[in-house]
């Protein structure tokens, strides 16, 4: 049965989608942008933005009863591939052992002018 996941510890959806959906032991987290859910603002710079995105993902994982260890796939979207190395450094700090499969793409533009957006799939 499909279950909609929501937490106030991650940014509210800015369109007609859910923060995450769980079905059959799999959690699908919508692309997270670096909005701080407390202030509604984005930090400056790719490292700070990646850190905020990963914190938002962590909040959703936690409320759904998952952890970073359950993540099997990530898709990283970057507004500029020149930021890949810095994003990768911060991203990697959340997955020190057995990192998930991943794809990273450079895109023309991200919502709200973000530098990075990451979607995530986790499995129990």
Structure description:
The protein is α+β, with helices and mostly antiparallel strands. The protein has a single domain (3-123), classed as 2-Layer Sandwich (60s Ribosomal Protein L30, Chain: A). Helices cover 23% and strands 29% of the residues. It is built from two helices and six strands. It has helices at residues 46-63, 84-93; strands spanning 3-5, 20-23, 26-32, 71-78, 101-106, 116-123. The protein has a six-stranded mixed sheet, covered by helices on one side. The chain is globular and about 40 Å long.
Write the layout of secondary structure elements.
Layout: E1 3-5, E2 20-23, E3 26-32, H1 46-63, E4 71-78, H2 84-93, E5 101-106, E6 116-123
Parallel strand pairs: 4-5
Antiparallel strand pairs: 1-2, 2-3, 3-6, 4-6
Helix pairs in contact: 1-2
Describe the structure concisely for a colleague.
This protein is α+β, with helices and mostly antiparallel strands. The protein has helices at residues 46-63, 84-93; strands at residues 3-5, 20-23, 26-32, 71-78, 101-106, 116-123. The chain has one domain (3-123): 60s Ribosomal Protein L30, Chain: A.
CATH fold call? 60s Ribosomal Protein L30, Chain: A
Mean pLDDT over the full residue set: 97
Helix content: 10-25%
* Total of helices: 2
User: pLDDT below 50 for ≥5 consecutive residues: which ranges?
Assistant: none
The total count of strands amounts to 6
Output the CATH homologous superfamily. RutC-like
Main beta-sheet strand count, sense and barrel state: 6 strands, mixed
Q: Tell me the Rg in angstroms.
A: 13 Å
Spatial separation of the terminal alpha carbons: 15 Å
The chain-level structural class is: alpha+beta
């Amino acid at each position: 049965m499909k279950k909609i996941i929501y937490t106030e510890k991650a940014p509210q959806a800015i369109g007609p989608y859910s923060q995450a959906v769980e079905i059959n032991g799999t959690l699908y987290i919508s692309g997270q942008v670096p909005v701080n859910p407390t202030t509604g603002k984005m930090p400056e710079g790719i490292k700070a933005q990646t850190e905020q995105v990963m914190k938002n993902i962590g909040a959703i994982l936690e409320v759904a009863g998952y952890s970073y260890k359950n993540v099997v796939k990530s898709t990283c979207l970057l507004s500029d591939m020149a930021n890949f190395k810095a994003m990768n450094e911060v991203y990697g700090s959340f997955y020190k052992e057995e990192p998930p499969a991943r794809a990273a793409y450079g895109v023309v533009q991200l919502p709200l002018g973000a530098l990075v957006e990451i979607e995530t799939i986790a499995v129990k």
